[in-house]
């Protein structure tokens, strides 16, 4: 909300989200009300804090420079309305499931995608049997459900992201998620996503390991290019 000191940002920005996004922004502005009133001056004008919100609904939400982003509704129970996104560019396609359980719209828009980035949720056997946890499991996609998505869409690469686990810690937990996916019949390319992991899409999909941030410069001055 007040990015002058932390980020050196000198302009406003646009935000896309479902119904309620504008109310969220206004709530944050109320929380930072003192800063917005007391710290605006000739060097940090109020215009640089403008936030333009766009309500997302099913269909094309952005089309710029040949990149088309299409939103589609998914199912996240008490988190609805929820959307997944399909990104198309130059005959290539990336599918972001968003927060959802198994949903036909993910399969519809993800069929033939180069890359599918999908959430996954997995608990220990003990927690999976607890009634209060079953409603949590129902809001996201289990490895078994994800396997069905991947089998039907046949992406060049599937990646797990927004990985929600309980009592399945570290690599052992990740190995269990992969094993459950394989046991459900998906034998295609699959990786566990990591922060800052990147992908290069051409004839195939290349995974680029996260780069070190040891030498990452601080974003602390106006006009500084983002790395």
Structural write-up:
- This protein has helices spanning 21-31, 33-38, 104-110, 125-128, 131-137, 143-153, 170-183; strands spanning 13-17, 51-55, 59-64, 67-74, 82-89, 92-96, 115-123, 157-166, 190-192, 198-201, 205-208.
- The mean pLDDT is 91.
- The radius of gyration is 20 Å and the shape is globular.
- The chain is α/β, with parallel strands linked by helices and 227 residues long.
Descriptive tags:
globular, 227 residues, seven-stranded mixed beta sheet
Largest sheet: 7 strands, mixed
Q: What is the arithmetic mean of pLDDT? A: 91
Q: Quick one: how many beta strands?
A: 11
Individual helix count: 7
The quaternary structure here is: single chain
Q: Low-confidence runs (pLDDT<50, min 5 residues)?
A: none
Helix content: 25-40%
How do the strands and helices of this protein lay out in sequence?
Elements: E1 13-17, H1 21-31, H2 33-38, E2 51-55, E3 59-64, E4 67-74, E5 82-89, E6 92-96, H3 104-110, E7 115-123, H4 125-128, H5 131-137, H6 143-153, E8 157-166, H7 170-183, E9 190-192, E10 198-201, E11 205-208
Helix pairs in contact: 3-6, 6-7
State the gist of this model.
By secondary structure, this protein is an alpha/beta fold. The chain contains 7 helices and 11 strands.
